[in-house]
Design brief:
The strands form 3 sheets. Strands 6-5-7-8-9 form a 5-stranded parallel sheet, with helices on both faces. A two-stranded antiparallel ribbon has the order 1-2. Strands 3-4 form a two-stranded antiparallel sheet. It is built from 10 helices and 9 strands. By secondary structure, the chain is of the alpha/beta class.
């Protein structure tokens, strides 16, 4: 009986110690790194930021502001002449960069400098998005923001990323919720994932042949199906010229789309190759984003979408 009582005391002491340790780690992590920004993960695999928050999003990513519609940056104004939406993956979002180093931010700044004062710009790019996610984000933002112009940035990888339904959603949602509410759990998981697990960003690509298959083409064109009420500009992004540039040019010409396909030559005309990249060597640098923002402005004024 006495031995049983001792074991109970040991177990209670251990639980108490673990709780105190967790609280101390939670407080320390929050004080040093701040809160993690919340994301909603739906059962079909679609995910997006919760509006009106500030904090860190991923390991090595500077703190970010999520605005009143769930996009990155400052709050948007609805009482304007024209609302412009950017959607895409981490290149649009601004992976490894601050809020004021993304190309949607630089584009907004250019508009302001050129006298387009009655415009608002929203950066709804999210890391890891494929075309399926972009379609869902466009639908979401058509309700929340009602854009007059949408700029969609697509890398070749984005064509093959799938929005997979989540198995055991209820169970996994407990894990997602724990990560959302605990800065320590979120940060510890990010460090382990990046350093020990890693991210497999390789997607099966056709080695040759047609990139813009019937299935991929129909998805992209669905983003432009409401062109009568909402203008759309596509950016087919890559650092170096490949068949993706050539086939995207053919795709845009065939479907009468406004597109920017010559990103390699746009960047090469302004920057050295080593200036293209952020510190991870993969995402665009702030310099690249500023150059692209000027190219977007040039394309939109050339086509008289902006005037």
């Amino acid at each position: 009986m006495q031995r049983t009582k001792k074991w109970k005391m040991y177990i209670l002491f251990l639980i108490f110690t673990l709780l105190i340790t967790f609280v101390l780690l939670e407080v320390t992590t929050t004080l040093i790194f701040g809160r993690k920004v919340f994301m909603v993960v739906e059962e079909d695999g679609f995910y997006y930021f919760v509006p009106n928050q500030y904090g860190w999003h991923s390991y090595r990513q500077p703190p970010m502001r999520v605005n009143n519609i769930g996009a990155r940056g400052e709050d948007v104004d609805f009482n304007v002449q024209k609302k412009i939406l950017f959607i895409g993956d981490s290149f649009t979002f601004g992976g490894e960069l601050k809020d004021d180093q993304t190309f949607p931010y630089f584009f907004d700044k250019i508009l302001d400098e050129r006298g387009f004062k009655n415009y608002s710009v929203a950066n709804a790019g999210v890391g890891g998005y494929g075309v399926d996610d972009m379609i869902r984000m466009q639908e979401k933002m058509e309700e929340a923001y009602k854009p007059d112009l949408t700029v969609v940035t697509i890398l070749e990888d984005d064509l093959y990323r799938k929005m997979d339904p989540i198995e055991n959603y209820e169970l996994k949602n407990i894990w997602y919720t724990l990560k959302q509410y605990s800065s320590f759990v979120s940060f510890a998981w990010e460090v382990m994932r990046v350093r020990f697990v890693g991210q497999d960003e390789r997607y099966p690509k056709p080695e040759n042949g047609e990139i813009f298959t019937e299935n991929i083409s129909s998805k992209i064109l669905s983003l432009a199906e409401d062109r009568e009420k909402e203008e759309i500009l596509f950016i087919f992004y890559e650092y170096n010229h490949t068949r993706y540039s050539d086939q995207s040019e053919e795709f845009c010409s065939k479907n009468d789309l406004y597109c920017i396909m010559n990103v390699p030559s746009i960047l090469a005309g302004e920057l050295k190759q080593e200036e293209y990249y952020a510190r991870d060597g993969a995402h665009p640098s702030a310099n690249s984003n500023e150059v692209l923002a000027n190219a977007i402005y040039g394309k939109l004024t050339e086509t008289r979408i902006l005037e």
